[in-house]
Design brief:
Elements: H1 2-7, H2 11-26, H3 30-42, E1 68-77, H4 82-93, E2 98-101, H5 110-118, E3 122-125, H6 138-156, E4 162-163, E5 181-182, E6 187-188, H7 191-194, H8 197-207, E7 213-217, H9 221-236, E8 239-241
Parallel strand pairs: 1-2, 1-7, 1-8, 2-3, 4-5, 6-7
Bound molecules: zinc ion.
């Protein structure tokens, strides 16, 4: 079943949308950009949801793109059990992911965080208590962020540069002592509401395009299983899983 669904995404659409999203998100080299813009005008623009009809654009468009890169991101961890299961699966598949940690979940789980860093995953900040920082004073918001980063750095020895603001609420004017780069997402699996492995897998493999950043939570058995299945399916489609910083080139 899942093989059929994946294979059912026509090559013309994969290449076409990959090109369009690559244009919007990355701003490719000038020559490539011109070709993509030309192609963008010739077809339906702006609908990356994959609902449009085939436009006759032949396959072979992939020649304009390099490896198709996507990023799996996991918020709200680390979880004492599921994060390690996920790390095992990622290691088996040689896949790097991104983890946005809650400060309140760090104590007692230092070994898991150390392992994340050692195995090449990107570790980011998700505030201390999962707060909407736009609803806090500057001081409180910065405290949430800095306390979390401090705890992570104390374990990994690495500065924390990226933040996934809870609820996607980011205050661009926030002036903390350390500048943080916000990382949002392009595919929301809603894994925490469905907790349904099959639904998560289907949602991702049918919507996925190059440069997508996928939002998940390593707090559930269903998410871990779905994430590993997604990796197996999409690696077979030629996707490369990278850390989120590789997809943010602004
Ligand atoms: Zn969260």
């Amino acid at each position: 079943m899942r093989k059929e669904r994946t294979a059912g995404i026509p090559a013309w659409k994969r290449g076409l949308l990959a090109g369009m999203i690559g244009l919007a998100a990355v701003g490719a080299a000038a020559g490539i950009r011109d070709r993509l813009e030309e192609r963008g005008r010739a077809v339906t623009m702006g609908d990356a949801s994959g609902e449009e009809e085939p436009s006759g654009i032949p396959s072979g468009e992939e020649q304009y793109t390099e490896t198709k890169k996507i990023a799996l991101t996991f918020d709200d961890g680390p979880h004492p059990r599921y994060t390690e299961e996920l790390l095992d699966g990622l290691a088996e598949r040689n896949v790097k992911a991104t983890f946005f940690l809650l400060g309140q979940n760090i104590e007692g789980r230092e070994d898991i965080i150390r392992r994340m860093a050692e195995e090449g995953h990107l570790i980011g900040n998700h505030t201390y208590y999962h707060v909407d920082i736009t609803k806090l004073s500057q001081n409180e918001a910065c405290r949430e962020i800095l306390d979390t980063s401090e705890k992570i750095t104390a374990i990994t020895g690495q500065p924390v540069e990226y933040i996934r603001p809870p609820f996607g609420s980011w205050d661009k004017e926030l002036e903390c002592e350390v500048m943080m780069i916000p990382v949002f997402w392009s595919v929301d699996t809603l894994d925490w509401t469905t907790k349904n492995e099959n639904q998560i897998v289907q949602k991702v493999v049918t919507k996925i395009e190059e440069n997508d950043i996928i939002l998940m939570h390593d707090s559930y058995d269903s998410t871990v299983k779905a994430a590993l299945r997604i990796i197996d399916l999409l690696q077979a489609e030629g996707y490369e899983f990278v850390t989120a910083d590789e997809l943010i080139l602004e």
